[in-house]
Amino acid sequence: MLESATVTLGxxxxxxxxxxxxxLRRNEKLIEDxxxxxxxxxxxxxxxxxxxxxxxxxxxKTSKDKQGFILNCIEIYSTTFDIPLEELIxx
Length: 91
Fold this sequence. Notes:
It is built from four helices and no strands. By secondary structure, it is mostly helical. The chain has two domains: 31 residues; 50 residues. Helix 2 runs antiparallel to helix 3. It is elongated, with a radius of gyration of 25 Å.
């Protein structure tokens, strides 16, 4: 019923709505760009993978399986941040 209603607005109110709509579109674009930039970063992807592996490790029954996942995490970290594996393992 209200979909076909006619609304009368003053020019200032209309202009204010248009300006607000344009600001929201620009903000949406900035947010989309930020998310895309974040997703494209190598370090963020690596940390996401590490977290996924740690979650899988927490669900393992045996300590040997858990250690395997943790070793994979250390290897990903080592490769991503250019830190020798030996240096990370001895810490």
